[in-house]
Amino acid sequence: MRHLYLPSLLTMGFATATFAASSQAFAYGAGDFFTRIGVAKVAPKSHNGDLADGAFSADVQDKTGFAFTLGYRFHDKLGLELLAARPFEHDIALNGDNLASTKHLPPTLTLQYYPLGGIQSRVQPYIGAGINYTRFSDEHLAIGELDLENSWGAAGQVGIDLLIDGHWALNAAAWYLDINTDATINGAAAGSVDIDPIVVMGGLSYRF
């Protein structure tokens, strides 16, 4: 009888150990480094300001491109994440015509809160708040010379990881970025452009 129980106990023990190891692997927590990669859409708010004493109404157009993040969890429920990307190039409509364009690079650092951090869950939502720095380059204007000043602003974030295994997860995230830039046309101050976009990204997350 004892010999019959032994294989069963070994099998149960192995299954329990396997389940425990698997569950532990899904427990996000302190010490995790991670990266998220995907496709991001930058959608500025509608009507982005009036330039040259109201002569031009500016509308910055949406743009989609590759983006990625790097992050570190220094606590089960707290972490830092840096949003990075290749420069996004936006057309700028003036009075309805695409007469201008610019590239911008918007690195954004957020402090994140994970309510389920340290818990063995395949669903890991998070929220974050932080700061954005936007660098403008390659400005173009069909009727003169355009210059946009670099910008600092606040940032907010929501996101979720849906875990596939101990390292990989599906990720969806959105940021609000406060981007306001002073514009100069032909060397003269022309007003401000309030871009204030929502950035939506979908892709994969990998933790080390």
From TrEMBL:
Swiss-Prot/TrEMBL GO biological process terms: transmembrane transport
Organism: Vreelandella populi
Record keywords, A-Z: Signal
Keyword rRNA processing in record: no
A GO cellular component annotation in the UniProt record: outer membrane
Family matches, as Pfam families: OmpW
Protein name according to UniProt: OmpW family protein
Signal peptide: 1-20
